């Protein structure tokens, strides 16, 4: 892959770990250098481990593992991806140091307090120091992003043109409002279903039992229609429901067991520019900022002196 095609989106995947330290961490055998900063074998191995875990969760649903023999080509691709991401991380920290951007322990603590990080550490096998470094890097990424893109602006003319080019994005499709409760076991799903049939409040049950992030909204997934991007089993069951109707049986998908409830039907609506102007301005501004930041980091990557010492 050519350097210019390396999108900085990899830094947004939650895979940013100890490879991007700002000094003070032990360095073992070097497998690469970026503008004189070494990438140690230990750093590389740690990051590769996270990429493997992420791949296994995405492909196997957390129920399978990469096989060193059968999945050799996949592992080799992950190794190449690891090295490229490590290079980008080093560049990120170099720029942060140059521009005086720092991350305090208290900033990391605030994020950790909002996450079940101990469970994550247990499941991933990572050490706490690596997890904290991941948090530091993510905070630093956005601090540098904000500094680089601080002067990005959007005017009304640009926003109107963007709206016209993406008008379908701002029109509301018709469909039916759908809520669900997702659990891992069929027995638990049936127990909850019995409570719902006895009059339990769906939103409250979702907040209490659902494994889906939508639990915070009482299980509300918004409007669902034929163009929605849900797994087929779920989407088919949801679209068969009439307003107010609840699935008679749990619906099994690759994610677990769903209890699905339909709300009101919604008619499609065409939104004028003035109605959605604030959203358009925000969307375009974010898009311009992301492009500017990607161009900025990719330009640094192009200019970087990179040494691959693995071979």
What does this entry look like structurally?
The chain is of the alpha+beta class and 311 residues long. The protein has 2 domains: 3-151 and 287-308, Orthogonal Bundle (Triger factor/SurA peptide-binding fold), CATH 1.10.4030; 172-266, Chitinase A, domain 3 (Roll). The chain is 50% helix and 13% strand. It is built from 11 helices and 7 strands. The chain has helices spanning 41-60, 72-98, 105-112, 117-124, 128-148, 156-165, 167-170, 186-197, 202-209, 232-239, 273-303, and strands at residues 30-34, 37-40, 175-183, 220-224, 251-253, 256-266, 306-308. β1 (30-34) and β2 form a beta hairpin. α1 (41-60) packs across α2, α2 (72-98) crosses α5 (128-148) and α6 crosses α11. Mean pLDDT is 87; it is low at 1-27.
The SSE order reads EEHHHHHHHEHHEHEEHE
Low-confidence stretches: 1-27
Taken from the alpha-carbon principal axes, the silhouette is: globular
* Percent range for β-strand residues: 5-15%
Number-wise, the strands total: 7
Give the helix level as a range of percent.
40-55%
Brief account:
The chain is an alpha+beta fold and 311 residues long. It has 11 helices and 7 strands.
